[in-house]
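> @MW can you paste both from yesterday?
MW: sure, first one:
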Amino acid sequence: MLSKNKSTKFIWSEMVFLSEWWNQASQNKKDDLKRLLDNKQLEITTGGWVMTDEGTAHYTAMLDQLIEGHQWLQQNLGIQPTAGWSVDPFGHSPTMAYLLKHSGINGMVIQRIHYSIKKHLAEQRSLEFFWRQGWASTDSTDIFCHMIPFLSYAIQHSCGPDPYVCCQYDFFKKQCYHGSQKVDVQSVDDNNIDSLGRQLWEQFQKKAELYRTDVILVPHGDDVRYATSLEWHNQLNNLEKLMTYINSRPDFQTEVRFGTLSDYFNEVAISKTRFPTLSGDFFTYADRGEDYWSGYYTTRPHYKHIIRRVQDLLRSLEILFTYCFADAIRKTNQTVIDSFTDKIGDLSYIRQQVALFQHHDAITGTSTSKVMKDYGKRLHSGYQKGILLLEKILSYLAKDENEPDVDEKISMTFNWTQPHKFIDQKVINLSRPKHDMV
């Protein structure tokens, strides 16, 4: 759809989903994707394996999933993201801002902030700021941050402060309400373009009052959208009519165009506007009233326990695997080198399952039971591969150089045989007594 509509632009954030598409795409499709990236119609934002949770994930896991995504991009597309998009985690941590800053991200967008903080920053026209680490005395850790001003990143909360107006511009969902009253979503035609165009322009003006520059960011999407050609057609056909109308009105003094996050950040930089500097975190999140999103800190504690254990196993494997591989190279043992080379894919698989579980609806436990079970199965699969790899590594380490023809066999039995069972026992079986092992 981007190839057919040259003025249209799109952003993609989570690499786990892009990798799934990439693995089954034809070479022509892969070439199309690269061309769209080159002409800046498509932009990869953040580039993490997932859009990580920032409240219950360990900081090393947040970093590892970012590395996994960035390495995938380098290996397959040869690109490095420069803009961050994190609109769904339930609260935001300066730790993530720090990691993004040092991974090459120049500007970032966040969303789920306590509504009273948003209100205060909006009154100060400080919804855009430089986010600084609390311990920093200079601007060395600053990263430019744009805060989405309203309740959600969805279409009905994006064009301006009035959702019953903005929801009219979702030309696919067809569900728009003003209170309990249903508002019909109409396709744009000659009879209603003046009314719809003026209302949209008025929402833009209201939104612009909250920011310091003369450019605003208006996301147009939601969860699981743009999945069909029909939706693409309906959205683009109507939006382009509205954009043409607004741009043709000299009294509006407004230009509307499609853009990526980098396009937006570039326009902000051109304005040479001065922005405030903030430090601190954005927890605990509340979207309305007393609805504080703190339950997920302890929801489904078994999964939170298990991911720490598997993350610990992964780190041990990475250290031991590297040592054994280097030792085999030093000894010029080609058989062992080839054997360990064959297992690099298993190590990557385990790392990707751990990275996947950092998703803001996985480690948080906020997915449905069905989805959580699927997360658990994937994590369990990675764990089982990890145990097999650890057995191989320990067998290599236990091998007696004085008896090179004797194979050491080590098997490890953990009782986490199913995703919903706890890990609480460990048994190591040796093929023969080994009194000098540590």
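MW: second:
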Amino acid sequence: MGTNMLLQHAYFTLPYPPVSRAAPFALAAAAAACAPADGVDRIGGLPDVVLRNIVSRLPAKDAARTSVLASRWRGLWRSAPLALVDAHLLPAVVLREACLDRDSPGVAAAVSRALAAHPGPFRCVHLTRCKMDAHRAEIERWIQLLAAKGVEELVFVNRPWPLNLPLPAALFSCAALTRLYIGVWRLPRTDALPRTAGFPHLRELGLCTVFMEDRDLAFLIDRCPVLEILVIFCSRTPVHLRLISRSLRCVQIGFSYFTDISVVDAPCLDRLLMWVTWSDSEDDKRPRIKIGRAPKLHVLGYFQPEMCELEIGSTIIKAGIKASAGTIVPSVKVMAMEVRFEVRNEVKLLPSFLNINTLHIRSEKADVATGKVNLKFWQEAGPIECVQCHIKELIFHEFRGSRSEFAFLKFIAKRAQALEKMVIVVAYASLSLGDLNDKLKSLTSAQWASKDCRVQIFKSPLTHGGGPGYNTHVGSDFSCADPFDLLS
């Protein structure tokens, strides 16, 4: 059960295949209605380049079947960039019933036949249904064929056991790759790889449930000169990340232990996202997120004062130290953090983040309350200019109705002159509708600094609490300005 849960997180992180067996097709009646009266094959008369484009958008089986439509189609599938997804080679009933930690019978042989039959190039290849340890000879041959036939997108997942199966070093010869996701492998020793090994065209890299040394992770980033998106999920070893990259735009780390994350020089970095992460430190020294040169960093979070420290230039933000208002990176517009409102030392940090345009706060339960945080606490903070002028959206997740939470919301309501929207997401089992209305009455009747602010209230979809909601696909989507907003 534990292995399946681990794999489910890894599979959830994988990119969707660009082709689907479930794609809707025109009904036969509709197709007949559109058929020309003279019976001439209009589609078959299209140029080869258009027909190859059509074939390349079909699952591999369907692409091969087009050769029986007419002599005009016979050789097209071999000359079209092919999309091979091993899950599409399974019967639907087998695919539904297959356990994540078991081999899918017959898939390895079908993959071998498909890779040998098509001369390339391969538009994308998703291999996620084979227990790779049982097919070591085949996978070495697969990688050689994929490298020779110019695969552009590869998703390569081992179905355990073992969890630490060595990744074939030949993968580093796939020089045409633009997207690569590997899951449930151990990275090879990079110091033994040829000096020419690398991915000169790789723009997106995902490491899911992977064993890796710090030096091997650093090697990967260094050998991907145009890398834009890095995703690390369910890492099997603590993550120590040192970012020096001229191209990286998005880094996501989730369900992983980490030691330190240092953004040394990343001039294009737009977002640094951490979903459900834990400290690997066994002593009082907490891991640190260090922000050096990142002039375009717009999205940051979830920051957890309980777990780690945040270092920005010469300023260290950590629990127990009251930081000045607005010390966060000036370029950051969207910030997310987890706060235990019953822990006074963590609440002291909030003024550091109040110069953000959009602030997500997730309220966490504290095992032991340490110090009162009431409206007087915020009044003594004085007139914080950044609250009055900057904050436009506040999204408060897992609201339980405590006095400390209300005190903070009242402070924002009375001071935030530029506030346009306040969203309160109520914890699933914390308050009845009646109790919620009673508690919010004093907030809605308060003297609001912004007359145009909209207040929205939702019930949390997280029935059992747990970490914040996340979606790695949204996180890497630059058209989505706020990847923490999973309600819209």
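> thanks! The chain has 15 helices and 18 strands.
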